[in-house]
Amino acid sequence: MDKLTVKELQALIEQKEQEKKKSKFSKKVVTAVILLNIIFTAAVFYTFLRTGSEPMTLIGAWFGFTTVEL
């Protein structure tokens, strides 16, 4: 096996740390989108109970947007 220089080893460590940061950010985005979808669904249910009609265009646009984000 080849021996790594100190600079190469540091570069590998930095690369691994950046991959972990990206992974954490991605998990936060997915969690946020799921929570926002739950809140949106509750708000639509509430609106439907109060008015008797559902905002179909808004629902389609919202879930289309969040699907693209995921």
Commentary on this structure:
- This protein has 70 residues and is mainly α.
- The protein contains two helices and no strands.
- α1 (6-51) runs antiparallel to α2 (56-69).
Order of helices and strands: HH
What gross morphology would you assign? rod-shaped
Summarize the amount of helix as a percent range.
Answer: over 70%
- Number of alpha- plus pi-helical segments: 2
CA-CA gap between termini: 41 Å
- What is the C-alpha radius of gyration, as a whole number of Å? 22 Å
Strand segment count: 0
How would a textbook summarize the main sheet? none
Secondary-structure-derived class: mainly alpha
Q: What percent of residues are in strands?
A: under 5%
User: How confident is the prediction overall: mean pLDDT?
Assistant: 87
Any low-confidence stretches, pLDDT <50, length ≥5? none
Keywords:
mainly alpha; single chain; 70 residues
What's the short version?
This protein has a domain at 25-70. The chain contains two helices and no strands.
Helix and strand arrangement:
Blueprint: H1 6-51, H2 56-69
Helix pairs in contact: 1-2
